[in-house]
Specification:
The chain has 12 helices and no strands. By secondary structure, it is mainly α.
């Protein structure tokens, strides 16, 4: 149910990691998404024939309606990184804008989910369940370390990697700042893992209902939308409170890191973002 959203997120993450391949990767997004979804469902040729044109239409919509908004968001971010100091609120505003864009993408992907789910066989539904289970175990092996120090090191490595893409090489004091910030950040892998299992069950139940139950098209769309709503706000109050804490603390960490950067690092961030603004601007004008 959330796979199309996830695949777009993975695609965008890949783009932001390798600026030189932005245009090529984005233009091939429908093929990449088709391949990624096939890994979860093992589509037949006839199912691929129904899916691929729908992904192409979603891609056209995304290029026309969302890329210009990405450009605006990148420009806002570029304006922020040029400042001597930024506030936690300014960081959270940017992240909220990004979440809003993904929310629009979710809504745009609903017709694809509604149309493809009824075509799946029982064997494919079981295949989907197995892939979800494997994905959960993969997350657990990567992110759930028993020792708190190990949990911090895993997260530190990832945040340092992205920070150096944005700002260039970090000083030892900045690396220490990040580590200290992560040390006091709330980390509860058990709660996160429970939420992943809940989401996987929710995703399977929705696909199963779309496949098996005689539901009107409108109610099918509402069923999927309700699932997306539960991604934004978990029905588990304990997890939602934890997620809100994490989001707030992440904004604080980003603001603190930026406020420690020098002029050279800020210029690096400005130039790095400018490259993506130019690429996305070009992509948004291609028909």
């Amino acid at each position: 149910m959330r796979l199309i959203q996830c695949s777009f997120m993975l695609l965008l993450t890949g783009l932001m990691s390798s600026c030189g391949f932005v245009q090529t990767a984005y233009n091939k997004a429908p093929q990449a998404l088709s391949w990624w979804l096939d890994d979860y469902f093992d589509f037949t040729q006839s199912q691929q024939s129904a899916l691929n044109p729908a992904l192409n239409r979603l891609h056209v919509w995304h290029r026309q309606h969302q890329l210009p908004l990405y450009i605006n968001t990148l420009k806002d971010l570029q304006s922020n990184v040029s400042k001597a100091r930024i506030s936690t609120g300014e960081v959270c505003e940017i992240t909220d804008n990004v979440k809003s864009l993904f929310g629009e993408l979710q809504l745009a992907s609903i017709p694809i989910i509604v149309d493809i789910a009824p075509l799946l066989s029982d064997k494919q539904l079981q295949y989907f369940q197995t892939k979800l289970d494997k994905r959960a175990q993969k997350w657990k092996s990567e992110w759930w370390q028993e020792a708190p120090d190990a949990q911090i090191e895993v997260r530190l490595e990832k945040i340092e990697s992205f920070s150096e893409k944005l700002y260039g090489e970090l000083s030892e004091s900045q690396q220490t700042l990040l580590k200290q910030s992560l040390t006091i950040a709330p980390i509860n892998p058990a709660l996160s893992y429970a939420e992943i299992l809940r989401r996987n069950t929710d995703a399977y139940d929705i696909i199963y209902a779309l496949n098996k139950q005689p539901i009107s098209t409108e109610n099918k769309a509402n069923l999927v939308k309700a699932g997306f709503d539960r991604l934004k706000k978990s029905p588990n109050p304990a997890y939602q409170a934890y997620a809100n804490q994490i989001n707030q603390r992440t904004c604080e960490i980003i603001a603190d890191l930026h406020n420690s950067t020098n002029a050279k690092q800020k210029q690096h961030a400005n130039d790095w973002l400018e490259g993506y603004i130019k690429d996305f601007t070009h992509l948004s004008t291609v028909k």
